[in-house]
Design a protein that fits this description.
By secondary structure, this protein is an alpha/beta fold. The protein contains eleven helices and seven strands. A seven-stranded mixed sheet has the order 3-2-1-4-5-7-6, sandwiched between helices. Strand 4, helix 5 and strand 5 (130-141) form a beta-alpha-beta unit. Helix 1 (6-31) crosses helix 10 and helix 6 (143-152) packs antiparallel against helix 7. The structure holds S-adenosylmethionine (SAM). The site of S-adenosylmethionine has 17 residues, from loops.
Amino acid sequence: MSDPMRPRAALRTAVVWEVLQDALERRVEATGRQALDVLDAGGGSGNFAVPLARLGHRVTVVDPSPNALFALERRAAEAEVADRVQGVQGDARGLFDVAERGGYDIVLCHGVLEYVDDPAEGVRNAVAALRPEGVLSLLAAGLGGAVLSRALAGHFTEAQQALADPNGRWGAGDPMPRRFTAGQLTSLVEDAGLRVGAVHGVRVFADLVPGALVDTEPGALDALLKLEAAAAEVAAFHSVATQLHVLGETPGTTGV
Ligand SMILES: C[S@@+](CC[C@H](N)C(=O)[O-])C[C@H]1O[C@@H](n2cnc3c(N)ncnc32)[C@H](O)[C@@H]1O
């Protein structure tokens, strides 16, 4: 039986997963090691960590939430990868209290910069966790996507407020502490000493399309996934994506 949650999950993660898998494959080829060392900063309950471990990589998840780490442990055990997933309690600021400086081939920082006190420090620490040749995978909420979705829902004043707010928030009730433009994210990555390998827009259309349309129209989900993949690469759509993904590479990285 198909998993009813799978399609929605695929819409959220497909583009990032594709880019990430590609980067992993290139690092495997360049290093000659089948199992890479991955740090998932703010990795939560393992949405990425567990699939990465299933590919054979060793993943350290640093997260401040004991509940998330508990869920991670359970998911890793269910997926029979508990020996390759290590969850440790910590945060982006105190990353090196619990993680190794310069010890990872790939560092993930997905959905975390929105919550940290100092995003620049968060990115600097993520970069400092990389080996001399390494890749940073950065995913964060996009400003334009929020403005567009508030406007299309008829909340025009909130949409305007998000545009004007330095943190991209549409009001006091906005659950997201901070959003970013693609330019802000690429600057954070470059200021931390990496070169930007690629920028992708994530969920350009998925959050705007009525769910019923995707769920009931035959072939609609696959077509939407393909459209998302195509639009993700086009810079014009980055400004309206719900999330933005930036791949950063250390200057000496080969095979990327
Ligand atoms: C939106 S979830 C993303 C989880 C996971 N990275 C993913 O993509 O599924 C945000 C995560 O960031 C964690 N977090 C919040 N503040 C943090 C901080 N200062 N340093 C590191 N992680 C933090 C939360 O506990 C939560 O697990």
